[in-house]
Amino acid sequence: MSIGIWILGDQLCEQQAALQSYSENKKIPIILIESLRHIQDRPYHKQKLVLVWSSMRHFAEELQQEGYLVTYKFADDFLSALQAWVRENHITELRVMTPNDRPFMAIIENLALPCQITLLPNNLFLWSREDFQDWAKNRKRLLMEDFYRQGRRKFQILMDQDQPMGGKWNLDQENRKPPKGKLNTPPTKWFQPDEITLDVIAKVQSLPFTTYGKAEPFLWGVTREQALEVLNWFIQYRLPDFGPYQDAMVTGEETLWHALLSPYLNLGLLQPLEVIQAAEKAYYHYQLPLNSVEGFIRQVLGWREYMHGIYHFVDPEYIENNWFNHTQPLPKFFWTGKTRMNCLKQILSQVENTGYAHHIQRLMVLSNFALIAGISPQEVENWFHAAFIDAFDWVMQTNVLGMGLFADGGMLASKPYAASANYINKMSDYCKNCVYSPKERTGKNACPFNFLYWNFLDQHREKLQIQGRMSLILKNLDKMSSADLESIRQQAKKWRINHE
After folding, report:
1. Which residues pair with 160 in a beta bridge?
2. Does 410 reside within a domain?
């Protein structure tokens, strides 16, 4: 039997299951493929394409330097590249680590190859899919907090015997400071593109189909060595103060104290446990603030693992969820960035330039706006998937549909994350330089976040009343005069018509 290994673009790790299954023999044929057809599913961000392809090319080069027999193919599609390579190398068994994304799994299942295909369990997450199924299957609720606590116990992270370090599992209440005064944020760890990356940038710039965003300046890391530099930089310069301002948004501050590790984790260049343990080790070694360390670890050990687990636990039809029956088309300004709302303009411009925005910008501005404006969840999810540098199917479905838009009716969020301009005004400086007033509910100067928010509550009151955490907010509707409420409805209606 002649064995070959296919390494996918988000499996760039020497410890990945397919490579490990035959690690004793480096003379086994290995293939990595850049497929043009695969990237035409949606108008992906140019920097996302550069990141993935450049990381793949660097990884292939590293494997070659270690003595592996690596073929790197530029192809129209996966099938033609694989068929030729399988025949050339007389391969009878093709080993692939199971992909994270369902659509890619379908690609593999539909391959007509003259050899056996063996799928090995994906080992790039702390929780296997089977482990998550065992945790979830008999539960009445699938709250992340419950899962996170189990993860802390299971992997013995920030634990004092059987109790959480400091006596509390979650220190989120300490991590919500608004950005007041001079923040003195640390610089970001960026990299200048090398020759390989410059070649990829040129290729992406010349693609004969629609993409999104700007390819340059491209400053992301593309190797494991660079990813480790970003991790070490975060631990040293950002983690100590990460907690208090992790929900803050500031004009001109694209990264604040955020880690910027998700692109590297999602490609396999970093492993979740090494990231978590690096933060935990720093906590003990340097007596770092527990709220910062716990807040960061919760994002990786809790949120990231939970989202991946949920994605594979729910039915494939999850993508079709639309609990509020929202059908408004995605406004063009999501793609162009041309809007008078300063908060959206700032963030959309940032995404266009870098492929990045931090989690509160994504949740409380972009997703919040899409939710209260009644935009189709599927169109919003497709935009997130295309626009963000760390986006994959498993990342975006549950994050956008479940957390951001409450389209699943509360399977993984305890309430819709809907908010008026008041939240954005409190947690950012965006409102200071906006033509709209965050304090006005209706009228020509009223911030759209305000009338859309109250219209959303009014429109979906019946459904929202069954969400326990919404009852207090809904009582505010009763305090409004019928004239005010009608004015809100009319202004929301007019806004929708103008943005179809």
Report:
1. 163
2. yes
